[in-house]
Structures are given as structure tokens and as C-alpha cells.
Amino acid sequence: MSDEKTAAAPRSLAEALRARDDASLAALLRSRPDLITPVPTDLTQLATRAGTRASVVRALERLDRFALQTAEALAVAGDPATYEELLGLIAGDAQDPPVAAALPRAVATLREQALVWGGDDRLRLVRTARELLAPSPQHPSPTGLGPTVREATSGMSPGRIQEIVTTAGLPSTHDSVSAVDSLTALFTDRRRMAALLAGAPADSLDVLGRLVWGPPYGQVTPDPAPRLRWLLDRGLLLPTAPGTVVLPREVALHLREGRAHRAPEPVPPAVEPEVAHRPQVVDATAAGQAHTALATVEELLKDWDEGGPNVLRAGGLSVRDLKRTAVALDVSEPVAAFWVELAYAAGLLASDGEADERYAATPAYDEWLERPPAERWALLAETWLTATRTPGLVGGRDAKDRALSALGPGLDRSAAPEVRHRVLTLLAGLPEGGAPSVESVLARLRWERPLRGPQRAPDEDDLRGRLARWTLSEAELLGVTGRGALSAHGRALLGPRPSAKGGVKARSRTTAATPAAPVPTGPEGAGDKLPVHKHHRAPQASRPETEAQPQPRQLQPDPEPGPLSPSEQAVASAAAARLLAPLLPEPLDHVLLQADLTAVAPGPLRRPLADTLGVLADVESKGGATVYRFTPGSVRRALDAGRTASDLHAFLATHSRTPVPQPLAYLIDDVARRHGHLRVGAASAYVRCDDDALLNEILADKRSAGLRLRRLAPTVLATQADPATLLEGLRAMGYAPAAESAEGDVLIARADSHRTPPRTAPEPVPDGPPAPDATLLAAAIRAIRAGDLASTAPRKPTTAQVAGGELPRTSSAETLATMQAAVLTGEALWIGYVNAEGAASQRVIAPIRVEGGFVTAYDHTADEVRTYPLHRVTGVAELADDQI
Prior knowledge:
The protein has about 900 residues and is an alpha+beta fold. It has 35 helices and 25 strands.
């Protein structure tokens, strides 16, 4: 490189960040939001934070497989490495064209993430990332490479090193350093290494073949076999500990033809449709599932209207109650857990907070029921898409080997919303009606977020894989997909997505996530220099010609915009509801009454009709048509709710397309005639009746022994049981008592009488700091730039300034005089300032006026006018000319 380029090359990550423009900094902060929590004071602090272990680990975990492979290759390359060296490690001696074409994008990604800095002639992996990815005996490299010759021979005696050099056919040297250099030069020379290995015994080459792709370590006995002795004598295997040998990195790379990885994966696995359905069939199937989903949630909450199962002491639903719920909904237990968790996440059910805590519907449930069906579905779908509650974990064990129960703690997984959104995005990228195989979706997700460390069983420790499987099954249950393909309303749920025919669809976002750093194309690439002035913008680098392939979708991974913001999601949910509404069956206002005391609803019923009929009759069977059965208990339930016999006759006559059968009319009249003849109140409880013969009959009945009734008066019986128990006991005996208040009025028991206090839906657990919006990004970058200006602006020499870049120290008189002079000249000053909390900072200000012990100035660090008490200014110093 020329002297100018050498002088301009950044010497640290902070200098590399300082050379970026605002768009590139915004891309970094958007992709790594933990870097601005809180906002750094300057770019040096930003660089320090970007190199911390926690932040680097988080950034590495969000790299796709090829970008991670590129970082792993840099970790075993020289420090710094050239672009050609990196290309050789990734593409091998054969310079694999697809790998070479994808490498610029991977390097640009690492640069944008501040994991790599420097020009193409001096690529540097940040120190923490190198420590995490470089090979060591305790932490083997994912590349399977071992230590270099220099590292492996660091503890070896000089005499032994000279023996190896001589046996390898090299001239002896006067010191170990030059001997190691000579041996390294041999192992990195392809021609000489080929000649050396040409004379190796076949079984020695077999040993190298077993170690070449890792792990590079092997065990030997004190008296190695001849095939091992041949390798040890020539340094092709080097001892690292008693009984342990290692294959040097340079030897492995020669045997691998220069590749750091056995199988580089520059291209994301394609998600292709396994089955194709007509879009109309997919939408109709999904709409049917959506209707079933609404009916299932309503049935669940209607069953818990008067108080559901008890809350466990540790929180959640017991296994027995989950089984009962599954039986009531006629689904499996995992599916029942999904519906229970969905209703809870949507805020439709919660614990009532009473002493005997139970689950019940919330007031939000009543509001939800009043909405149109499509809007009710949209709320459930939006909740599912954004919730971190993970029903698939129910029945498993947590880290402390405690059982995970439905509605209990420990079910939040912060990655769930991202995985759900990504799975649906992959489905949306297929042609309409296309249903992919589960394995192709999982393979794509593993490429986008590979597991670091040893690969485990796919569904054992790969949480993203399990979340993806659950997403596909839950989306089908909810009606987001139909027959495995994304429906039209499910597609709308993801937000507006511009479509390219035959290609992957990508949702448009106001803040682009493409790398702002120039794409490296070789050692003299555009990534060496960036303009320094914050108002300048780097020109958009052109893409390398090697990336211009006929099928760009296979060379470039789909963009990952991530979940929508709450406002964007609300708009998308409304659009999905509009698309779903015409596909849902129209609610009916009639039923068909039959002579066997049943009523058939040939479709979904309108809300008032469904509510009243649900009280008056019991559901006998469900399906395309719902069958209700009228029983004495169901009719009594309607009378308890405040209906009269004439009301029930009029209701059935109005809503039945067939005449009211005579047996049903007789049933209603018979139950109504006996209803309320007995009155139950609190004594603990009492029964009163004008017919003392009826009370005699109750006392004589053996079934009343458990109630322990006794006569207080000819028309009154009393018991120690509570009124509810007495009511149930008498009803079990075949009577139809009515509860009454302390004033003697009949109490009306409505089905929806029990509600929890107003409860908010559980908040999703965030996956780290939230992504910053455009306003926060702009403010953060402005503050970082201003703080960096204050910390790096040259100052005029002053005896009062403390050496080493500390805050300036001047006396009060000097501070006041310098401030007043700056007001007259309009010059900017560098000040040290200590706030009310005792935190010290340095600032660049332009004083406007000094009065009353305060200085009002334009603060370049904060980019606004501020007023500072003079007694908190530690000192002032003039800036060098032409710095502000």
C-alpha cells in the first residue's frame, strides 16, 4: 500500500468507528442495541463496550453460518490478516467460486457488527472474538484446527527442535526461533510439503487423515509405533503433554488444501415447497381453523365463567386440571395447554386474587366477545405472534428439575416472537399455496442462527428448532396456515411485503438493515478509508461482479426485518382481519328444535342467541353442526338466570325454524312450576317453604342426612352447611330450590357472574435491549459524536492542565476570566464539569453570557444551549484553532 493509505489505516477499533459515517453507526447500533444501553459518552467507550465478552458473544450468536465461519477462519489466520489470506482459508486453494462470491458480504457483515475492523490489507478480529473462536486445548476451534507450529513448540527443548528440523531435511540453525520459522516455512510451502509427504508410509498418512478435520489431538504410548515415530520425527505431529500429540495447524491446512472448514456454507439452504395447494383451498382451510380456534377459546372461558381451577401454590395449573380441560375441549393435553396459554397471554383469563385463588375470565373477555369474529381472531393471532410465553414447554423440566406447568412461571422464552415471525416469513417467501417440509425450514433456521460449540441432537438443546416446530403446529391450530401453507390473512399478519415474482418477498422497513460499510473486494478494497467529517456520507459501494448471479435468492439470505413495532403490528392485524372476515361463516339467528329434546344449530350462532341457548341447554356434540340437549338441570339454570317460563317459550318460538315440540314445552313448564318453591338463605343456611309437607319429605329423605337439616319452624329448616352446598345438595335430590338474599328476594345467578379484577395481559420478556427507533438512534449518534469531539479535540498547552488527558484544573478566578474572554471573542472552551451526583465529564462549550455565578453556553457535547454553575466547573482550557 502507499504511504497515504498506511497513514490513514485505523490503529484501533475506536479509530475505525470514528471513520464511519452516521448511517454506518446507526446500522451498528441497530444490530447491537446493547451498545447504547446506556448511550456511550464517546466512540472510545463505544469501542470498549463493543469488545466486552457479553456483547461479543451476543453478536456472534446472531451471525449466520457463513459469517460465523468467516469469523472462525479469521481467528486461525494471522493477526492482522489480508483479504487474500482469508479468502484462501475460506475458499481453499481451488478458490471455490460460490464461496469467493459470498465472502465480501460476510466480511461486510462482520465489519458492520464491529467484530472486524481494518482495511483489506489488515483485517483484525476484535480481541474478545479471537479469544472465543481461536483453538485451545480447553476450547477446540469449530474449524477442527490445532495450534500453530510456534505455539505447539513453545515448551519444547531447543535440542529436540533441532532434531526435528534436521530429520525434515532442513539445515540446522543457531537458535530455536529461526528453527521454528524454518519448519513453518516448510509446512506452508505446498510444493515442498507434497515432496515430504510423498515419502511418508501409507499408515502414517492414515494417521494424518484421521486427525486432519479434527479433533487434532491424539494419544500415543511412551514407545510410539513406527508410523507415529515417522510423523513425530519430522514435526508433522508435535507433543503437547505426556502421551498427547497434536497436528500442527499448518500441516492440517496443507492436507485440507487450504480450507479452514470442511464444508463452507456460503449459500443458505433453500426453503422449497414440498406440496402445492390452490390458494383458495389454503385460505378456506385456514378460515375453518380460525373459526374452530374462536369456538375453542370461547368454550374454555365459558367453562371457567363461574371460577375455573385452583391456582397452584407455586403458580400455574395442576396436571389434573389440565387433563380435565383437555377432556372438556376434546383435545390432547399439549393442545389444551396451548389454548389456555393463548387466552392468558391475550388477557382473557387470569387468577382472581382471592384467598382461595382460582382462574377465571377477565372483564376483557366480555369486551372481546362483543367484537366481530375476525377482530377476535386477529387479537389472538397478534398475541400469539408477539408473546414470549411458550406452551410447548409445558410438561418439561426447568434448570432446577422442577416441572413446568401451564400458566405457571418459567415458560417465557425471549426468542419465541423472533422465531415465529421468521418461520412465517420463510413461508411467505414461497409461492402462494406452497407448503414446505419441516426439515427444510429447520435447516434454514440453523443456517441463520447456527449452534456454537459441539452440535447436539436437533431437538435436544436447539431451542430455536423446537420453537420452529411448535410454530408450524400452532399456526395450523390458530388458522394462520392451512394445510401447511401460509394463508392470505396470515401473510397480511406479517405486514406489507413488496413481492418479487419467483423470488423471496421482503417486508419494506424505513430503516434498512443492509451493511453500510463498503464491501471489500480485495486488498485494495473500498473498506480502507471512510470520511471523517460527521456530515459527510460515504458513497454507496458497488457490489462485486462475482455476486451478480442468475439466482440472487440462493446467494443472498432473506432479509430479517424482525417483528413489527406495536403500531405496525396493529395495522397488520387489522388488514388480516379484513381479509379473514369474508371467509368466516355468517352467524345464524335460528336453530332446529327436535322432538327428542335436542336443538341443532346448522352453523355458528349470533352472540345473543348462542349465549341464551348455552344457558338453556347443554352442548351434546360439536362439528359442522352443534347439537344442544335440553334437560331439567339446563332449564333450571335458565330460570336461575332470571328467565321465566313465558320468556323461554317466546325465545324458542322466535328462534326455531321448526315448531316447539310438546315434550320441550312440558319440560319447561314442569321445571318452572317447581322452581323457587323452596327458598335457601344463610343461617349458616336455611330452607323455607310455605308447604310444610314438602319440608317433612326432605327431612324424611335419607339423602338429606349429609346436610344435617333441622326444623326451626313449620316452614323453615336450618343447617350448618353453606348456602351453595345446600343448594347443590337439594338439587342432587331432585328439587329445584332458589337462592334468596337477606331481604328475601330471589337471587339471580348469571353464568358470567364471576370475573377477576381488571388485569393486563402479561408483558413479553424482551430478548435483550429493545431495538432502538430512528429518533433514539439519531439522538444517540449525535451525543456520541459530540462527546467524541469533546474528548479528542486538540487543546492549547496550559500549565494548569493535568497531563494524561484528565479534566483541566484552574482556579476560580482563572475560570471566570477565561469564560468572560470567550464570551467576547466567541471562542469555544474545553471544560471539566462535575454534576450534582458527583459524576465528572468533559465538555466543549461556546460561552454566551456569564452572570450570577452561572455560565450560559452552547454545549457542543449535548448539541444544545445549557446553563452551568461556575462552582461545578473544575477548570477550563482553550481549544486549538479551527477545531469547532
